[in-house]
Amino acid sequence: MPDAILRLALPSPLRRLFDYRAPAGLHRADLQPGMRLRVPFGRRELIGILVEVSDHSEVPADKLKPALQLLDAQSPMPAAFFKLCLWTAQYYQHSLGDTFSWALPTLLRQGEPAEARQERFWHLTEGARLDDPRLARAPRQRDALATIAQHPHGVAHQLLSHLQLNKDSLELLREKGLVSIEVRRHAASERHANWLAQPELPLNPEQRAATEAIRAGFDSFNAFLLAGVTGSGKTEVYLQLIRETLEAGKQALVLIPEINLGPQTLARFERRFNARIALLHSAVNDRERLDAWLAARDGEADIIIGTRSALFTPMKNPGLIIIDEEHDASYKQQEGLRYHARDLALVRARQENIPIVLGSATPSLESLQNAHAGRYGLLRLTQRAGGAQQPRFLRLDIKSRPLDSGISGPMQQAIGQTLAAGQQVLVFLNRRGFAPTLLCHDCGWLSECPRCDARMTVHQRSGELRCHHCGHVERQPSNCPQCGKVDLRPVGAGTERAEERLAILFPNYPVLRVDRDSTSRKDAMNQLFDTIQRGEPCILIGTQMLAKGHHFPRVTLVSILDADGGLFSADFRASERMAQLIVQVAGRAGRAEEPGRVIIQTHLADHPLLVQLTEQGYFAFAEQALSERRAAGLPPFCHLALLRAEAHKPGQAEGFLDEACTEAEHLLRELNLSGIELLGPVPAPMERRAGRYRAQLLLQANARAPLHRLLNNWLLALEKIPAGRAVRWSLDVDPIDLF
Ligand code: ADP
Ligand code: ZN
Ligand code: ZN
């Protein structure tokens, strides 16, 4: 009988499997797909994933090497996980080995045993009292004790920082015998007696209708788009659906954009449930990630909350998937494996035959179209749950009006009035830094990045010019580098400049800036929000970081300084993004007693999309935008794949893409495929970035099946093009930007 041939996926960009002989003494019956094996690879050793066992290999027998070691007694990944990875690799035309690398926790990739470390839980000790006299002068310990007391089943050590629990305070409490640490595995039966740690809110009629519709589809794959205005109580709907999932003995997976995963969100889930919550996002360390992954796989975690990559968390008893803010661009990975977590979540829900809920105040046009086509149930929440009214929108035409650091006269007046009335103002400008360009008034020199086809942004406070595309930084010159004169002027305005100007215009009020530059310090954001929650009049200025996650109930004026970027852009998705941003920012503001106003500065006050958005709301805008997309044959009415290439020398990337194009034309004929257009190759909209010359070839297809048939054959051919060695190339299936 011939030796068994092991076909492995290895961490390599090559779209193929690698054959090995089984390690000595290993029987075929011991092998299952998904098991990890250590194998020799050139001069290195790699860890591969077993995909299949075969009798034959194309590789001559004397060239086949034996695998060195089997790392698992059983596959560390459930079959459903394995299947999802196969699907992902196939659909995104990515190497399977590399797909496993993105999907698995780092430690598993490195060969760590797939076993959970025992988890530590902090508990209130029996007899501990919240009013213990020893804590009279220790407010932090008192707060910590109160927080622990809210969790009758203990707080997992991993979650301390997310609940803003300080370890030192806990240690002091432990010395006093008020709290203890317990190492244990969660006794499931204990939790399951009563899932609710807090009563549920009675649902309003819209929430109830939505919940009931989703519940009716609970037993199998069903997709729902929960389109609810900001503050309409979508989260409450999620929580009640999760409770039903838990009661059915199943697990729920909740995906959230990175920026929303603050302590507030987690605390809301923690407060509601006596459930074990596994948290997966970019800040958890490798060990925590593996523990959370294993806990979910083994059914020990009841609720899994995480960002994009948490989509790849196996579940023993999957019951429900929720994608919050489904329109958010952070669900699309923009490097390596360019997957879209929302789209994959739908595939996963279908594979596991469970319901999925996509929630958003501003659904993507893709999801809306899926709802129109009957693929998703559309559920609307039109009212704010707390009774707050929707803000009123106003377009402020700034054609031929002078702008003072980006702020027009009427806008300044509106801001002044709001502050004088004791209310707060939110100023939104999606451009950080002081000014987008530095200009020499004498010779016309512009602060161009030496490595990109882009201008460097002026950062006045740090005295730097920074390129936001490649990270290049220079000192801000005092003389023009070209003519030597000193008349250098910042052109345009970013948040830093608007902040400076607002502080001068309104000296009696605090001006708080929120953008990536101001909030890089840890906790800075939370301090800001404390100030805002106190409710005194102030101005809050920031970028899209303001559009997400937080509510600012005391804000009654939202000033949008520039809506035009979204209307002029060459990117066909720009207007959709602009509308989502405006609506999301606007939705952060206002509450019942004080309805909000949103004033939008624009040079295009009559633009039909902007008129629809401000007069009829997001859904009217979306219908208009969808009909424009349909007329232009753009997504979601066609399917795109983008082949990008970049190289050190001009022309190299195009050379490769020319060959790729010829190859594609050849395959289209050979496979007899129609309905696919090849657009390009053309230089990328920003041709040079970080010192490389970039070009792209766009494939536009009116149906998915022929496009993927082409891609299946094309990518293998591309790997063999010699010109491809000098360029860096990648394929983006369903790209969300064309840069
Ligand atoms: P969304 O997720 O749509 O932004 P939330 O679920 O966060 O909305 O709800 C917004 C606010 O309204 C929260 O303070 C929440 O507690 C409250 N809320 C939600 N549903 C109800 C309800 N049925 N009755 C009373 N208040 C509610
Ligand atoms: Zn000059
Ligand atoms: Zn640059």
UniProtKB/TrEMBL annotation:
SMART domains (UniProt xref): DEXDc (SM00487), HELICc (SM00490)
Catalytic activity of the protein: ATP + H2O = ADP + phosphate + H(+); Couples ATP hydrolysis with the unwinding of duplex DNA by translocating in the 3'-5' direction
EC numbers, comma separated: 5.6.2.4
Record-linked InterPro entries: DEAD/DEAH_box_helicase_dom, Helicase_ATP-bd, Helicase_C-like, P-loop_NTPase, PriA, PriA_3primeBD, PriA_3primeBD_sf, PriA_C
Residue ranges that the Swiss-Prot or TrEMBL entry lists as coiled coil: none
Annotated cofactor note: Binds 2 zinc ions per subunit.
Cross-referenced Pfam families: DEAD (PF00270), Helicase_C (PF00271), PriA_3primeBD (PF17764), PriA_C (PF18074), Zn_ribbon_PriA (PF18319)
Positions of the Helicase C-terminal domain: 472-632
Residues that, per the record, bind Zn(2+) 1: C440, C443, C480, C483
Keywords: ATP-binding, DNA replication, DNA-binding, Helicase, Hydrolase, Isomerase, Metal-binding, Nucleotide-binding, Primosome, Zinc
Positions contributing to Zn(2+) 2 binding: C449, C452, C467, C470
UniProt GO molecular function: 3'-5' DNA helicase activity; ATP binding; ATP hydrolysis activity; DNA binding; zinc ion binding
Keyword Isomerase: yes
EC main group: isomerase
One GO location term (cellular component): primosome complex
Helicase ATP-binding domain: residues covered: 215-381
Gene Ontology terms describing biological process: DNA recombination; DNA replication initiation; DNA replication, synthesis of primer; double-strand break repair
Cofactor (UniProt): Zn(2+)
Family assignment from sequence similarity: Belongs to the helicase family. PriA subfamily.
Function, as annotated: Initiates the restart of stalled replication forks, which reloads the replicative helicase on sites other than the origin of replication. Recognizes and binds to abandoned replication forks and remodels them to uncover a helicase loading site. Promotes assembly of the primosome at these replication forks.
Subunit note: Component of the replication restart primosome.
Protein name in UniProt: Replication restart protein PriA
Organism per entry: Pseudomonas cavernicola
Gene behind this protein: priA
